[in-house]
Amino acid sequence: MDEVYTTVSTKGQLVIPAAIRQQLGIKPGTRVAIRQEGSRVIIDPETLAAKLRKIDEMCGYTAGGPSGTEILLEDRRLERERELREEESW
Known about the structure:
The protein is of the alpha+beta class. It has one domain (18-88). The protein contains three helices and two strands; from the N terminus they run αββαα. The protein has helices at 18-24, 48-58, 68-88; strands at 32-37, 40-45. The chain has a two-stranded antiparallel sheet. Strand 1 (32-37) and strand 2 (40-45) form a beta hairpin. The chain is rod-shaped, with a radius of gyration of 25 Å.
């Protein structure tokens, strides 16, 4: 999308152009997160579509690391070995 300009009011308010609001599903009452990244201001709407995009972005985030299931199974195996040693020592 091409850049669209808007002006900040004396109260610090700005209007998000209708085309952008429609594309992002921003409606009256939609909460938005505002953060600074360097010299940029990022406005991130809290819509279902935005939440789904964040989930998609995180897909594969832990790829290459150990599986949570594998870690739990290894912990349980070690715990069971310890239990068996304790039973044998009785």
